[in-house]
Each structure stands twice: as C-alpha cells, then as structure tokens.
Automatic annotation (TrEMBL):
Pfam families: Methyltransf_11. Residues 53-140 form the Methyltransferase type domain. This is SAM-dependent methyltransferase. GO terms for molecular function: S-adenosylmethionine-dependent methyltransferase activity. It comes from Spongiactinospora rosea. SUPFAM superfamilies: S-adenosyl-L-methionine-dependent methyltransferases. Keywords: Methyltransferase, Transferase.
Amino acid sequence: MGRGFDELVAEAEAAPVAGWDFSWLAGRATEERPSWGYQRLMSARLAKAGAALDIQTGGGEVLAGAGKLPPTMAVTESWPPNVAKATALLHPRGVVVVATPDEPPLPFGDAAFDLVTSRHPATVWWAEITRVLRPGGTYFAQHVGPASVFELTEFFLGPQPEEVRRTRHPDIESADARAAGLEVVGLRPERLRMEFTDIGTIVYFLRKVIWIVPGFTVERHRDRLRDLHDLIEREGPFVAHSTRVLVEAVKPA
C-alpha cells in the first residue's frame, strides 16, 4: 500500500524549492520536453556573442550548462535564494550576478548587449529588452505560453476567464515586441504533457512554480489537496499540459 496523504504532503512541504532544479520529482512526475532543445540553441548563440545578458536566470542552472560563455556575461535575478545559488554556480565562470527587482529599468546602459536570453521569464519588459540590445542584437528566449498547466490552476481556483487564459498568447507577445521596436523572426509554440503520480509531487510543484496557483499554501488548500489525492488514488496520475513558446526577435540595425 502506498504512502498516505499526510506523509506525502509533509515530505513535499519540507523539501527545499530554491533554484530551478526539479530532480526532487524524478520517478514521480514527468513533463514532456519541447522538441527544439532550448539550452542547446541558447548555447550556440552565446558562443558567438561578445556581450550577453540572461534575464531572470533562476539559480543559474540553465546558463551553467552552456559550453562557452561570451567575454562579457551578466545575469539578473530577483529572488534572494536564487541569487545566492546563481552566484555560487556562475561566479567561477566569470559571470556577474545582479540582484534586481523584476521590474524596469534593467540596471544596464543602452545598447550594452548583443544577445539577451531568458528561460521562462515571469514578466517580459519588451521596451527594456530593446533598450539594452545593440542595433542588430537578438532576444532569444523560451517563454511559458498561454493557459500553461491550467488543469491544476482550475482544479484549485475554478474556471478562469478567457482574458486570463489568453495571457502570454504568442499573438499578444509578438504584438508587444513589435510595439517596443523589435522585429519578431521566430515564434514557435508547443503543448506538452505532464503527469503527477502522487499528491506530494503537486505540493512541491505548486510551492516551486508559484504562479500556477497564486498564494498556494498547504494550509489554505488542504481540503482541495485531499480531494486531488483521492482522485489520483482512484484514477491514477493527474495529467496536465504545459505550453512553451520559442521566441526570437531582433533589434533593427
């Protein structure tokens, strides 16, 4: 017989959630990966850049996987536990880690970088990205798309209005990028299957990915968590779908 609700929840509530490493979920939850391989594509661009900025780097894990970094490499991050983790991981490679709020302005001069990257930025300040890019420079990123993991969001919060479901839609982001002065040269969305095999995986995921159920706590959502635990026990893994968009935009020369 499997472990019970209270044990699974307590274990997940005690697990550390700093950084962007999901290895705690290994063997218990799965997420299909986008077909394009963002880290590989990002690494190829970094290898050719002279000065680059990674926005909202998290714990620095994605950037740390790049083979060759440009001579000038900076990252920004707003969450203190991630700032500490990124500093420890990236400083040995000569990367400047800047702790800054996730709001404009970016703490860099105009036309400072020929490449700006970001993986899963919580917010995208297009005018600031345009400002810090040199003419001819590139923004290359993997964004979270619209209604990502909404099966979980709506299980806890109920049906969401259409305007919320369309937040981060590629058409809207493309229009915003163009309005800020960028030329969008690539926009590729994918919808990807996720499976959660027990309630502990969901508690851990919602603690770590805080925008799926804003304000999530075990205490506040215990009744709904128990309902979901019972559902998984009866029917098997809870299935959701993430959405991802590969974005490439250029500042006209």
